[in-house]
Amino acid sequence: xxxxxxxxxxxxxxxxxxxxxxxxxxxxxxxxxxxxxxxxxxxxxxxxxxxxxxxxxxxxxxxxxxxxxxxxxxxxxxxxxxxxxxxxxxxxxxxxxxxxxxxxxxxxxxxxxxxxxxxxxxxxxxxxxxxxxxxxxxxxxxxxxxxxxxxxxxxxxxxxxxxxxxxxxxxxxxxxxxxxxxxxxxxxxxxxxxxxxxxxxxxxxxxxxxxxxxxxxxxxxxxxxxxxxxxxxxxxxxxxxxxxxxxxxxxxxxxxxxxxxxxxxxxxxxxxxxxxxxxxxxxxxxxxxxxxxxxxxxxxxxxxxxxxxxxxxxxxxxxxxxxxxxxxxxxxxxxxxxxxxxxxxxxxxxxxxxxxxxxxxxxxxxxxxxxxxxxxxxxxxxxxxxxxxxxxxxxxxxxxxxxxxxxxxxxxxxxxxxxxxxxxxxxxxxxxxxxxxxxxxxxxxxxxxxxxxxxxxxxxxxxxxxxxxxxxxxxxxxxxxxxxxxxxxxxxxxxxxxxxxxxxxxxxxxxxxxxxxxxxxxxxxxxxxxxxxxxxxxxxxxxxxxxxxxxxxxxxxxxxxxxxxxxxxxxxxxxxxxxxxxxxxxxxxxxxxxxxxxxxxxxxxxxxxxxxxxxxxxxxxxxxxxxxxxxxxxxxxxxxxxxxxxxxxxxxxxxxxxxxxxxxxxxxxxxxxxxxxxxxxxxxxxxxxxxxxxxxxxxxxxxxxxxxxxxxxxxxxxxxxxxxxxxxxxxxxxxxxxxxxxxxxxxxxxxxxxxxxxxxxxxxxxxxxxxxxxxxxxxxxxxxxxxxxxxxxxxxxxxxx
RNA sequence: GCCCAGAUGGCGGAAUUGGUAGACGCGCCAGACUCAAAAUCUGGUUCCCGCAAGGGAGUGAGGGUUCAAUUCCCUCUCUGGGCACCA
Length: 801
What we know:
Elements: H1 6-19, E1 33-38, H2 50-68, E2 72-74, H3 84-93, H4 97-114, H5 130-145, E3 149-159, E4 164-166, E5 171-172, E6 175-176, E7 184-193, H6 199-203, H7 212-222, E8 224-233, E9 240-245, E10 256-259, H8 265-270, H9 276-288, H10 291-294, E11 304-312, E12 319-325, E13 335-338, H11 343-351, E14 360-361, E15 381-382, H12 393-406, E16 410-416, E17 421-422, E18 424-425, E19 435-437, E20 443-445, H13 473-483, E21 488-489, E22 493-494, H14 496-499, H15 503-506, H16 519-525, E23 530-532, H17 541-554, E24 567-568, E25 572-575, E26 578-579, H18 590-597, H19 599-608, E27 615-618, H20 623-638, H21 646-665, H22 669-686, H23 692-700, H24 705-714, H25 721-724, E28 738-745, E29 748-756, H26 761-769, H27 772-778, E30 781-789, E31 793-800
Parallel strand pairs: 1-2, 1-23, 10-12, 23-24, 25-27, 28-31
Antiparallel strand pairs: 3-4, 3-7, 5-6, 7-17, 8-9, 8-16, 10-13, 11-12, 14-15, 18-22, 19-20, 19-21, 25-26, 28-29, 30-31
Helix pairs in contact: 1-24, 2-19, 18-19, 19-20, 21-22, 23-24
The structure holds one RNA strand.
């Protein structure tokens, strides 16, 4: 018998699928909709790597499983084609990105079709197409017009290698998320989105079926903290220093104040005084510190300077010297009350000889900082705290807030770590920010009729740190022609995360150039039912997309708040337990394996390696097991066979459907495949029924689509396998007539017995006593307890004689 | 430092609500076919003792609850991920 010819078969079906309309979607179909979305790739010139396959293969299997259940599945695919990868590739090869994007996406589309996935290419998008970024610009303008976008001069993250600014989310451990270079700070005039306005809404994940870990990561990133602003009057003058604290219970211990070096009041305080020179010097030193030095690692090196001013503690009148300090950030109010109950303050005070006082101790007895090596950060009983003496500090906390509030010296406040989203980029290959400036320098939106506000081509796109399109004559001429002499265009482009924050809506427009998206179609199709992609996007893309979606909702454009109902992250494929990387030289390239075994086998082996969300370890030889299985399956279909044991066969097939259904529901593809293997191993014993071959083919459809179709055809079936759908099982038929169960004596297995599934305890005990090895132990003592769990276990507890 | 996830044979990994640990696959061993090899097929394969029947140990380490623990509780070690001077 001929072995399964994977390549020939797959080529045949891929052609049929591309030419036919089985996989085309009718968005108006009345069947239950299912929006199955995978994070789209950026197009590179390279072949698909194993990560692509691990993402797209199993995701397609999920879509097929939904389609087998009769749902109208929408499974689009497109390209995140603006951005650094495409631009860097263009710089390297000298080919203009707009050209390389065309060739690379065409190549990639071809490869992705060879996975044998049912992508809806008719609804594809490319974020760098003017017909797409026209609407990205429209979204920007909607935010701008509604006060959710603004331009501001601020110290921002700068990547010296990428020569552009980065959003906070793109800085990881002080390094650029993309190129790993160390990020520095620069004062620049940049565009921001007010994502911080949405902090509270973004914290709410109710109704979302997301991994708990991702939700936690977003919550930590947003960083809500409840505290209190306390106002300290200056010794001289009218200024009030407002300090944010989560520990108002330590207010009586405050002995000094620290301010962020960037705080605008610092200049006011030292200008023209004898402290100015020293403060300037220290500030310069701090500004030279990298983010890492100033934050995590620099924790040991406290640095600051006295401003020559004093504030007054409103609760006890103490005179508090005011300092700048490197550890004080522009978070909260940028001013911090400092005391001996905080480790950082404690270290700073020791370095600069500032007095310290405790107000909390374990039992309320008076303790002195001089007797301690570090801060007292624990809880306890208050002392030297006016009317709050003797109280537990945590119980006193709300009362102190109330006291401050009543005396006008403070109020409860909530702070978030989430900062506004910086979207300007000083790079060429991105959507131009659709803003122009009048001769006075005021920003104006480019009216919608002039969208797309196209990216000029008459520039050198190599990054210099200045925006490349600043040198475009065409852009300036265009601006002056439309708006008048002296008007100037914005020359920064948008963060590509902006492009990808709404693409799932654009897919549903079917490329309509007249509007961003179709309200009616969206009403039916959104939110996305299943979103599959890497966990690295937890605090970037997934946060931005939720924000943009919520903003569009609040502006009345769409009627759903959350874009992604269910989210799943695929795991990582490793080689010998290690991350694959070019530098380690342990990268597995899919091509040769796909060439040799076919796409079904390759996809199935990836799914077989481990649970989808956990990933797995690639083994060059392991894939042969799947190849053998596919061949075995094909031969089983081609061989005439008959059932040898009717009862056992029926039970086995119903059990198989049940197990595969349950494991498919949970994306446990590894055990789905194992179940089918087990069934095939059973056939020599129980036989195989001709009619049931069709059932097996249907079960294989999601995980090995080419093979399934070929078998379907071979078995003489007409029409799409999807019309037959996913097989159903009868629960009553999944139960074996007899069960084998272990017999335990004092917790140790001493034998096993075969019983009718509903055997009584007496029958079970009788059967057990017939087992010689069981009896051997039973006679050694007196049975004091029998545990019988039908179908599971029979246990004896005996007391030795 | 804080938070989360995990640790099971030579390897990847299975194990409904606590109920015969090691499914399935790789690898390995033996056999069949072959002049031979590959491919394929059959059997075996957690470790230790034993010809076998069987016994002992065993799911990162140590304790606990239970007739029974990979599963529940406590302590610890290691690995991966995230956050990190956020007052």
